Amino acid sequence: MFLYIFLKPWLGVGLLLSAGEKWSHQRRLLTPAFHFDILKSYVKIFNRSADIMHAKWQRLASEGHTRLDMFEHISLMTLDSLQKCVFSFDSNCQEKPSEYITAILALSALVIKRCEQIFLHKDFLCYLTPDGRRFRKACRLVHDFTDAVIQERRRTLISQGSQDFLRAKAKAKTLDFIDVLLLAKDEDGKGLSDEDIRAEADTFMFAGEGLRNRQGSLHVRDLAGGPGSPRLAIFPMLFEVAGVGWGASYHEGAVDPLVLKYPRDPSLFGCPSGHDTTASGLSWVLYNLAKHPEYQERCRQEVQELLRDREPKEIEWDELAQLPFLTMCIKESLRLHPPVPGISRCCAQDVVLPDGRVIPKGNICVISIFGIHHNPSVWPDPEVYNPFRFDPESPQKRSPLAFIPFSAGPRNCIGQTFAMTEMKVVLALTLLRFRVLPDEEEPRRKPEIVLRAEGGLWLRVEPLRGGQQ
Q1: Could you confirm whether domain 4-463 is CATH 3.40.190.10?
Q2: pLDDT tens digits, residue range 84-98?
Q3: Which of the chain's ends, N or C, has fewer CB atoms near its CB within 10 Å?
Q4: Before 360, cis peptide (omega within 30)?
């Protein structure tokens, strides 16, 4: 039983799970959804979602609650943004429970749980369990929501015509992901079916900012591990291949073998949840800046210089390039704490390694992004947080494949500009309004589908004067 099967009832055959010509066709039709002109309109959404999160932090701080789990708060913020960007729908999920958002979170957690528990790999057993029934119920809720939006939007498109529909959306600046997919046509004038659009929308909600497509497989009998446990040992293995123990906080030892070989059938491995990947990236960069107040203050000064006395405090698209040091800090954090620790690929041809060994065509390679990013032969003192590694004024001579937080190649992250844009906006506004301080307890890395911290990533926040929203 392969891992992609667990996602298919939820995501269908969208960009994440498709292959071959279908994948190529979908990728071509989806590319316009990530064009700069589309992404520009999302910047206001990112600003607004950050404002809501920060207002909640201000309220909590006034009540004496300054110790916060970054993953919890930032996950809700990114889900809030995603729902607005995909559906133009405001669920107010940061302030009150949302049935749809609760279902998305439940589906993500249930897929991970099913991957880890071998006895749940058979459908007929899984769906007899309470978790299996919850999964089906959550799937129905998510699908019904997406279908309703698509059908209502398609009726509007048919009644108005594509040109008037597009003009109205452009004038109101409300062109969202669903709209772009409804309007998409290939070279033969063929568009996407409602089923295809639902698959892509649900996939974007699942893997939006960190959208990666990865071919590969790991059979459960190869991966059942952990002493006396049926849990899969995939994620800790990605640390161990880098010389880092299960749940370790610090790197030890050199990194040589960064690719593991598994001669199995091609499938899917390591699909990240979009809100989780961005939440992971933002949480860890805030942690790194909390540990290095000198870098935090330099980022803050950069943002203050950019915004000066402007009200309201809002980052605009054209200003993102004017935050070079903040960008360096994000990139170094993505190196040190990559949101997705590893990916897998199926070899399309024989691959000859530098030492002469050959990985035959059809084999599956598990690639440790964490290991690549902590290779001391490429990154001296790899556990040291040093943003100047990414200083554009003094570029380093290293392979472009030495830094791959968004994967690489034709199946790389289609949404990487979306992700970086959101991280820059949210980080800039956060540092403008709050000083971030480390918690007393050092977090321990917890490698799952995304890189987490055991028990949450807790930091302390102090509101700053003059950083009003």
Answers
A1: no
A2: 999 999 999 999 999
A3: N
A4: no
